[in-house]
Task: inverse folding
């Protein structure tokens, strides 16, 4: 848990390479508790971070096709898919705190 907390902080304040590695590690933990951080990472300005978040959400959810976000995506596509992931998470965890 302590290491995961550090990874969550890196996602929000680390450099691009650190954010990529932190998101990758959180996704590989396959823990629903880290989904909000992965959803936050979907808004990252670096597309590499977004792709890692997408892949992490696919692992956690076991929806291996995800919601169709391709590697070269537009912001419109990204936010449409992000809304779908948020909807999925709200269905899985209806008592979770509100998502940003």
Result:
């Amino acid at each position: 848990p302590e290491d995961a907390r550090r990874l969550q902080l890196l996602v929000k304040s680390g450099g691009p390479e650190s954010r990529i590695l932190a998101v990758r590690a959180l996704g590989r933990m396959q823990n629903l508790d880290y989904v909000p951080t992965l959803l936050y990472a979907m808004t990252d300005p670096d597309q590499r971070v977004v792709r890692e978040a997408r892949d992490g959400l696919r692992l956690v959810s076991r929806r291996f096709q995800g919601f169709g976000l391709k590697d070269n995506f537009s912001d419109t596509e990204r936010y449409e898919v992000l809304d779908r992931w948020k909807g999925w998470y709200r269905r899985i965890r209806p008592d979770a705190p509100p998502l940003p």
Observations:
- The chain has five helices and no strands.
- The two ends are 23 Å apart (CA to CA).
- The mean pLDDT is 95.
